[in-house]
Amino acid sequence: MLDYFFGSKARVKILKQFLLNPAERYYLRQLARDLRLQVNAVRRELQKMQESGLLISDKAEGNKTSDKKYYQANQAFLLYPEIRSLLLKAQILASENFVKALKQEGQPKLVLLTGSFTGYPQAQTDMLVVAKVKRPKFLELIKKLEQELGKEINFTLMDETEFNYRQEIVDVFLYGILESQQILLLNELGQSIWEKAARQKNNLTN
Predict the structure, then answer these.
(1) Residues 6+ apart with CB under 8 A from 36
(2) Distance of CA 81 to CAs 19, 71, 140, 187, 188, Å?
(3) Pairing with 17, which of 44, 97, 114, 196 sits 20 to 30 Å away (CA)?
(4) CA of 193: how far to CAs of 177, 179, 198, in Å?
(5) Closest CA to 122 of 23, 193, 27, 15
(6) β strands within the chain, DSSP E
């Protein structure tokens, strides 16, 4: 979908890499390798983005080669918030389509996005799914979503029984997800999951 607005798949991939990881710095061949793009195509896009002001660059100390020129998102660029917001929303739209497909294959109870979907790299996962679904079918849906987004998704899948157990024992991993910056796509467990999380933690500390 974003190809239509931004003109090419290569440009979309590069924009995602920089704007969804604004604190990171990348060099030409690193981007070409990680994004599986031609070096010349990446070079052209980097040049255009730097000329527009969307990217800033500097050379690595003691290295004069052009391939070690590092690029980074320019968060002071006037349109930076709008472009980044569009990229994030496109990810959410694709994930909503994932939820629709998941409902046809199983019984999802909770689908929560965090991590790369919210620009929160500290999160231990990108997606938490509580569902009764056959794992091979679920993996097929995840693969399709990864292809659409152009990136690997770090997901956590569990059934409702495991989710409830992890809540009861105040599982550090689960509570880290519930307390992180997040986007809720589906919740058939009720808002009480956050109330219960807070109550369980209070009982543990008192």
Answers:
(1) none
(2) 9, 18, 33, 29, 32
(3) 97
(4) 12, 11, 9
(5) 23
(6) 26-27, 55-59, 69-73, 107-113, 127-132, 155-158, 183-187
CA–CA dist 49, 51 (Å, integer): 5
CA distances in angstroms from 28 to 24, 36, 156, 159, listed in the order given: 13, 12, 33, 43
Q: Is the pTM of this model over 0.85?
A: no
CA distance 150 to 10: 10
| Torsion sign across C-alpha atoms 143, 149, 150, 156 | negative
100-146 pLDDT, tens digit each: 999 999 999 999 999 888 877 678 899 999 999 999 999 999 999 99
Cβ-based burial of 91 (10 A; exposed 0-12, middle 13-18, buried ≥19): buried
Residue 71, phi then psi, degrees to nearest 5: -120, 150
Q: What is the pLDDT of residues 133-174, one digit of tens each?
A: 999 999 999 999 998 887 889 999 999 999 999 988 888 899
Q: How far apart are CA 19 and CA 73, in angstroms?
A: 6
Task: Return the SS3 of 62.
Answer: coil
Q: Is residue 109 classed as helix, strand or coil in its secondary structure?
A: strand
| Integer Cα distance of 17 and 26 in angstroms | 9
Taking alpha carbons only, the member of 167, 27, 10, 184 closest to residue 96 is 184
